[in-house]
Design brief:
By secondary structure, the chain is α+β, with helices and mostly antiparallel strands. The chain is elongated, with a radius of gyration of 14 Å.
Length: 71
């Protein structure tokens, strides 16, 4: 489902490489989405803002995050 969601984003084609740029590590993005989904489903996180999230040909990096934990 995470891969399907990524493909629904209008700019998802850019992740596969654009005008000579290398494709990014979509597996890393999928893992981030799944991990966040699991934490939300467990009720451990109430709110999360990851901005920006940098994707590279090998890996991903959250550059800034704001997380509100559930009580």
């Amino acid at each position: 489902e995470a891969r399907w969601l990524i493909e629904q984003v209008k700019g998802s084609k850019l992740l596969k490489g654009y005008r000579g740029s290398r494709p990014v590590d979509t597996d890393a993005l999928v893992n981030i989405l799944i991990t966040i989904s699991e934490l939300m489903a467990e009720g451990r996180i109430r709110e999360i803002d990851l901005n920006p999230l940098a994707l590279y040909p090998a890996g991903a990096l959250v550059l800034d995050a704001k997380i509100s934990l559930s009580q």
